[in-house]
Design brief:
388 residues; alpha+beta; Alpha-Beta Plaits; Trna Endonuclease, Chain: A, domain 1; seven-stranded antiparallel beta sheet; 16 strands; globular
Length: 388
């Protein structure tokens, strides 16, 4: 993603935001940037950045791109690079020694004494004092260097991801690989509802980070990480409301957008909550076990994708997990639980429960703090099955 100051977009009709994409016309200066980046291995971060921008910006300008765009592309590429602290002595230790000496001696005496103590040439010490600062660290190249097309695609993706971190709501249309898209959204903790569309697609409505009053940055990053999973599907589309400069603007994208299509869905992982719960159930010696592949629950045109089921013999209870949430989201979710004709529980992060006591007191809701209590969940399963 990009710092907000590097976002580049156009306002259309006063109500829509259109990203300013990079295209094939930008390849000449992107190739130059790639070459300058390759030559930057072994240089200090600050020096390399200055050289790249100063060298590439004039060429980019001749192809219709500004200095800010050059900085943004390097910002995206830079994340692939690692850095090292090039100092034989930890700079923090060196600073502590030199500053203590400087309080009692002259500058030259302090440097000479520190040089003797650390077996360093006194003339090098000043350069090493802050070698651990971000701008002074030494760049190390990634295993593979980027081509112009890869720089272009990564920048375009980062542009959209950054816009999504400023959204209040997002609606996506998913036509293929629905289960994988949903699973990844739930793994990341996104607040989402799913509705069956008349044409056989599924409409996914996701709360944006600016709909929250807490953890907006962390949630925004989760939403941005999910977006490439959507682009891996055929015929996808997305509409979002984005706040820019205090104004709400519409963002509309589809599969024709010039952003990369990943060749596979993100690797599936079980959530930590599920892994911990499975371990706790075994430790309890419980007859209940986790079943991950569960059927979709349909309720008045809305689709529920439970995270897992707890199964004991012929008994079975579906379980939904909610990490981030708003009172409105939980109220709507609990309404679906009440209307569903199958045993279904909602496990909700207790850190936010005090803001909506009525929902938190519902028998179908289980509160947890970081970890779902296996005993409480098993008791809730027994209770809900006894009521049906």
């Amino acid at each position: 993603m990009l710092p907000s100051r590097l976002l580049d977009f156009a306002r259309m009709d006063g109500a829509r935001v259109v990203p300013r994409w990079l295209g094939a016309r930008d390849d000449p200066w992107l190739r130059e940037l790639a070459a300058e980046a390759t030559a930057s291995a072994g240089r200090a971060v600050g020096d390399a950045e200055d050289r790249i921008i100063e060298t590439v910006a004039p060429l980019a300008y001749r192809h219709g791109a500004g200095r800010r765009t050059v900085e943004a592309v390097w910002n995206v590429e830079r994340r692939r690079w690692s850095t090292i602290v090039a100092s034989p002595v930890p700079p923090a230790r060196l600073r502590r020694s030199v500053f203590e000496l400087a309080a009692e001696r002259s500058r030259d005496e302090a440097l000479a004494t520190a040089g003797a103590a650390f077996d360093l040439d006194p003339s090098r010490i000043e350069d090493l004092l802050f070698a651990d600062r971000a701008h002074a660290r030494i760049l190390q190249a990634p295993e593979t260097l980027s081509s112009a097309s890869e720089l272009r695609e990564r920048y375009n993706l980062a542009l959209v991801q950054t816009l999504l971190t400023r959204s209040t709501d997002v609606t996506a249309v998913v036509r293929t690989n629905l289960r994988s898209v949903v699973r990844y959204a739930k793994l990341l903790g996104l607040m989402a509802f799913f509705d069956a569309a008349p044409d056989g697609a599924t409409r996914m409505t996701v709360s944006g980070p600016l709909s929250l009053f807490h953890d907006t940055v962390k949630y925004g990053h989760a939403l941005a990480r999910w977006f490439p999973a959507l682009t891996a599907t055929q015929g996808w589309s997305l509409a979002a409301r984005v706040l820019l400069g205090g104004q709400a603007l519409g963002l509309e994208l589809d599969a024709a957008a010039p952003i990369p299509r990943v060749h596979s869905m993100p690797r599936a992982h079980d959530s930590k909550l599920e892994t911990w719960l499975e371990s706790d159930l075994r430790r309890l010696g419980s007859e209940w076990r986790i079943e991950r592949e569960v059927a979709v629950v349909r309720q008045s045109g809305r689709l529920l994708f439970p995270d897992f089921a707890l199964v004991s013999g012929e008994r079975r209870v579906l379980v939904e997990l909610a990490g981030w949430w708003t009172p409105e989201y939980i109220a709507a979710k609990v309404g679906l639980l009440r209307a569903a004709r199958v045993p279904l529980l909602l496990c909700m992060d207790a850190r936010h429960a005090s803001t909506h006591g009525a929902v938190a007191s519902d028998a179908r809701v289980i509160l947890f703090e970081k970890r779902v209590d296996a005993r409480v969940l098993v008791a809730a399963c027994e209770r809900i099955l006894g009521e049906n």
